[in-house]
Design a protein that fits this description.
single chain; 420 residues; alpha/beta; Immunoglobulin-like; five-stranded antiparallel β-sheet; 7 helices; 25% helix; disordered N terminus; DUF58 domain-containing protein
Length: 420
Amino acid sequence: MTPATRHDPPHEVRGGDPAPPSADRRSTADTARCHPTTSAICAATTSGFVLALAVALGRSELVVFAAPLIGLLAIGWRTPSMTVTMTVSTGDEAITCFEGDTIDLALDFLVTPRPEGVSVTARPSPVRGLSLETRSRTATSATVEVRPHRWGRYAIPVETTTSTGGLGVLRTRHDLVEIMVYPRAEGDRTARGVSTRTRIGAHRARSTGSGMDFADVREFVPGDPLRSVNWRATARHGALRVTERHRELANDVVVVFDATLEGAHHPFEPLDRAVRGATELIGSALRAGDRVGLVRIGDISGWCPVRGGRGQFSATVSALLNPESETLTRFTGTLPPRVAISADTTVVAFSGLSDSGFTLALFELRKRGHQVIVADVMSDALLDDHPDPLVARLWTFERIGLHRDLGAAGIEVVDGGSPR
């Protein structure tokens, strides 16, 4: 049963790929027509009123008062043929940032041909979720400070007003700036998976090997490195003793994201929890030396290969926010292919468990032998304001039964809200 409430997200998410990597982004808008200025509107309104009054009263001499205004409109209205070109210099190869960061955009605009008396002003249009402030402005450029408040993909449209010195102004719109805003992960949590990869990581193993945590002291065996000799124990026993330490291994983690939360019938709070939780897990796992991959299941399903390194964070989070990212490999249906999630991989899913296809995919992943952990981001508090308390009660019972079925299949569920 799906909650009946809905809250629109406080930010604008756009589809499509972001702008191509480039230090300068250029947009050209050809003029089609001019819009009248306030003076032109006043002159047209006054002359029309005088003409209507002359017709209504049958006084043809009143047309003399409207003649100068009509002549002004006939002479002053011009539709020049110009092209407005705008360039945005960001200083970086890609416009990506975190929530709360500040980005300075330098706007340079050019009008060709540019007759005498033509002035150009540019200003960004308001975008929900972003704070836009114009810092400086000249005749041919402007500097805009952008501060995002919410994660998402934002397009910043810039409107230019070109005054021709007459009764008409040219207004153009340039959609040339797109910003990818990543959620800011404050915590440091890792997946409780089974570390079976023989790579250096941060997961303590029971076996001994290279690591930092003390395990035991034993007798020296030929082949042991000299740096592992415990000289205090050697002096106490009168024979060589070495220190054994627990091995520190790495894990492969695949984040499975329920993209059906982006649907219009879902509230925004579960989507925000899922995105922030997935971003926090990806960042903390990469810092621990783990390799991370991503699987999106929804209308557009795809998977990002399991990799490590600093660049993997940007690749996976960009694919998380943008279903049309080039880093995603498409697949049909709701069950990811076996190549997307290899054996001995810990699967952490973020879902509201409201889509039956996504839930069945979790059962199939468990049948393949993966350790599956599900973070249920759908809280019971979303139905506190429902007019019928019976609906909220039945929905809670359904959630409890679903959690029980997942647990019986060996899938660990982390509840996002406490059942009633």
